[in-house]
Design brief:
Radius of gyration: 56 Å
Oligomer: single chain
CATH class of the largest domain: Mainly Beta
Helix content: 25-40%
Strand content: 25-35%
Order of helices and strands: HEEEEEHHEEEEEEEHEEEEEEEH
Strand order of the largest sheet: 2-9-12-11-10-13
Length: 464
């Protein structure tokens, strides 16, 4: 049996001995050196990158005055402007009419000129209704009138005959009365018998009875005539109604203007009182303006009002001529409501626009109107956007400071000599004198009080 060497013999672990699961291996020297060189190279490269970034960093400009923020400024102006009251209202046409159907009928025809948006003249036919029923009614009434006329004529003939019979009966009574008187005298003289007297008295009574009957018949013709004449008058009224209804089948425009609404179709049934169209005359427009209640003491009939709503085509407080599309739309105060509205603390002022101005304010539009009251005078005025929390940002020596002000009233309109496009201004009572340089837009973040700025006149900024 051969003996194995000590290196080849497997070591049997003893009880409680820990066995290393993987024998440790040492790296070769060249691997260690390579790893060290790579690590040093990465560190050196990082250092070089940091140095390069620092060397190429952009340097901030030196504070030589040109790096200050440029802020647009303007000057407080002293100009002549009137006191204004501004409010909103809805425009309405002074002349507008809802056209109703006055009879119940069907639509017979619609003229080609009856279309919404087209002009109509006063009396122009808007729609033609079927008048056949009313024509038949008129013809029936005409026949009834003919029958009544014939009855009245026959009654006239009867009256003439009865009147003649009454005359004859009166003569007969007179003759019978004379005969009775003669027989009574003769009887008294013994020349006649009592029977003859009785016969004469009987003839007289008969004659009087006949006269009474004929007189009664003649008298009864009067009420009959009144009845027939009343029936004839009623029929004439019915005929007039039929003729009017026949004419009412031609529905006509009561005023001249523009056809605003019409939606009937051929053959459609129309009831009496039903609205079939609406006509609007835009040549005169009125706006019920709601103004603050305190305006009552300065407002007067005849004050000039200007539409400020830029949403209307061609309106605004521009300075164009009367024929310019940008010329202001002006009207005048015609009426002032006598009572204030306690809920809104406002009053109603009625502004009327006429002619070319009325054409630029369509009925139904919500408009903003400024009313100039009293006389103008030199007032200190600033753009509204220059005010922030009732303060102006005044520029002195490049520094901004906030100055409190007191507002007098707002003013709407473009001030051409200001060089600014602003339409919203504020008249101030005190705080800063005219000519003071102020920040134009006080809400700018770079225009806070205490900041140093480079002021730029608004006109310079606009031209640059």
């Amino acid at each position: 049996m051969e003996h194995e060497s000590d290196d080849e013999l497997e070591h049997e672990p003893g009880e409680g001995e820990v066995i290393d699961p993987a024998p440790r291996r040492r790296l070769p020297m060249h691997s260690v050196v390579f790893r060290l060189l790579v690590s040093f190279g990465l560190i050196a490269g990082s250092i070089l990158i940091v140095v390069a970034l620092i060397a190429t960093k952009e340097q901030p400009p030196q504070d030589d005055g040109r790096s200050l923020p440029r802020v647009q400024v303007t000057r407080v102006m002293s100009v002549e402007v009137p006191r204004q009251w501004v409010g909103f209202g809805i425009s309405t046409a002074l002349r507008a009419s809802v056209v109703p159907a006055r009879v119940s009928a069907t639509v017979l025809s619609v003229p080609d000129s009856t279309k919404e948006g087209l002009p109509v003249t006063e009396g122009q036919v808007i729609v033609q209704l079927d008048a056949e029923d009313f024509v038949r009614q008129r013809e029936m009434v005409d026949e009834a009138l003919k029958s009544l006329d014939a009855q009245i004529t026959a009654l006239s003939i009867q009256e003439d005959a009865l009147r003649e019979q009454v005359r004859l009966a009166t003569e007969d009574v007179a003759i019978s009365t004379k005969d009775l008187e003669r027989f009574e005298k003769a009887y008294a003289d013994g020349a006649a018998r009592i029977r003859e007297v009785d016969n004469a008295r009987t003839r007289r009574i008969q004659a009087e009875r006949q006269k009474v009957v004929l007189a009664e018949q003649l008298s009864s013709t009067g009420p009959k005539r009144q009845q027939l004449e009343a029936q004839a008058a009623s029929q004439r009224s019915a005929r007039e109604i039929a003729v009017n209804n026949e004419a009412r089948c031609s529905v006509r425009a009561p005023i001249a203007g523009i056809l605003q609404q019409f939606d009937l179709k051929l053959g459609e049934s129309v009831m009496a009182g039903q609205a079939v169209a609406r006509v609007v005359d835009p040549s005169a427009v009125e706006v019920e303006l709601r103004l603050p209640a305190q305006a009552r003491w300065s407002l007067a009939v005849g004050d000039v009002a200007t539409v400020m709503d830029g949403g209307l085509a061609g309106t605004g407080a521009g300075s164009g001529g009367a024929g310019s599309a940008t010329a202001p739309v002006t009207g005048r105060v015609q009426r002032i409501a006598p009572e204030d509205d306690p809920a809104t603390r406002t009053l109603g002022a009625y502004i009327e626009f006429a002619g070319a101005d009325a054409k630029r304010v369509p009925p139904g539009a919500v408009v903003e109107v400024a009313v100039a009251v009293g006389g103008g005078g030199a007032r200190t005025i600033v753009p509204r956007r220059a005010i922030r929390s009732d303060r102006l940002h005044v520029v002195e020596g490049g520094q901004i400071r906030a100055v409190p002000i007191t507002r007098a009233f707002p003013y709407r309109g473009v001030l051409a000599h200001s060089g600014l496009p602003d339409e919203s201004w504020v008249v101030i009572e005190d705080g800063v004198p005219g000519g003071t340089v102020i920040v134009l837009d006080a809400s700018s973040r770079v225009a806070e009080p205490g900041s140093t700025i480079q002021p730029v006149e608004a006109s310079e900024r606009a031209g640059s």
